[in-house]
Please model this.
Amino acid sequence: MAPGTRTRVDVVVVGGGIIGLATADALMTRLPGVTVSVLEKEASVATHQTGRNSGVVHAGIYYAPGSMKADLAVRGGDRLIEFCAEHGIAHDRCGKLVVATTDAQRPRLDALAERARANGVAVTSLTPDAAREHEPHVACVAALHVAATGRADFAGVAHALAERIIAEGGEVRTGTTAGRARPTPGGWKVETTSGSVHARFLVGCAGLHADRVARRSGASSDVRILAFRGEYLDVIGQSADLVHGLVYPVPDPRFPFLGVHLTRGLDGHVHAGPNAVLALAREGYRWSDVSLRDLASTLTWPGTARLVGRYWRPGFDEMVRSLSRRHFIAAAQQLVPNLDAADVTRAPAGVRAQAVDRRGALLDDFHLVDGERSLHVLNAPSPAATASLEIGALVADRVVRLIAPGPGAPW
Model:
């Protein structure tokens, strides 16, 4: 996808991940004839969170009933699977196990089953023997089977959306970084590395840089994006044969991360992870990736110290797993004890954009902020990829309500 040439459009979308592309696609569906440009600073779409995740299509069992996450994940998963089938993108619905490895975890597993059912997701409670019919090498005292969980090539979805946007007359400008946006009588003048773009409306879907894009366009928000690196291990050799599908631990309800789990991807490769450690750069995929600007942004935010104070113990455990492969493997061996440490190697990491408020609270739900002739997606962590088509539709509907002309007026 080459940079576009339009200098005036109806809507400019900042961010070429799966959310930004789904939003642009939905806008073009809802408003035929609308001109849309997607600005992506990387040379290709889906470079960051979209292309660096476990590839799991979540069923919607973890999220508070009535929340956007619960609603959009359940509907979004179905729609995503349909999209993949329509466009020939690799996908399946393999199901997954969530396992309690100790008796102390049973109440949390039972609570998770109740939450799943409240969200309209069917789950089956299993004995250890029944769980081993799905995963013969798993260790547990009880388990849930979630048949609706699947897998998909999210990067493939993003590329298919980009191709459809271009085919419908929109633009996807890769290699184009959005800078400051200045209000004009007719909307916005957005400075970019490939020239200025005038737009009637601005949508921010910038993931790891979402708060900065919002501030550059004058939107007010009392959150800051903190980057959490999720590190993975590749499970190879005979140990890879011990994992047939997806095996998850019971999550800690105090923490928004799901814990180290084992996943066999659509390509057959098995991964263990991720952990969750504060990254030293917003695109900090390795410990050696350090940005003084990003680090200063994290350390000066009042919520950071409060977050560390609140979660220092689980944060310390995550740090230990990051620095010690032995401890990381031990977490995976709680699920499948026969994993051989000799069959485990480091794998590429991902980074999660997590909004944190001044009180140090991790925003649990998706978070959208309205600005002057702008709308920004400021928190879209997992299950955002699963829910991406529904999130895009939601954002597009809100944009349409804000800018659509009256009856009979030309667009």
Notes: Confidence is low (pLDDT under 50) at residues 406-411.
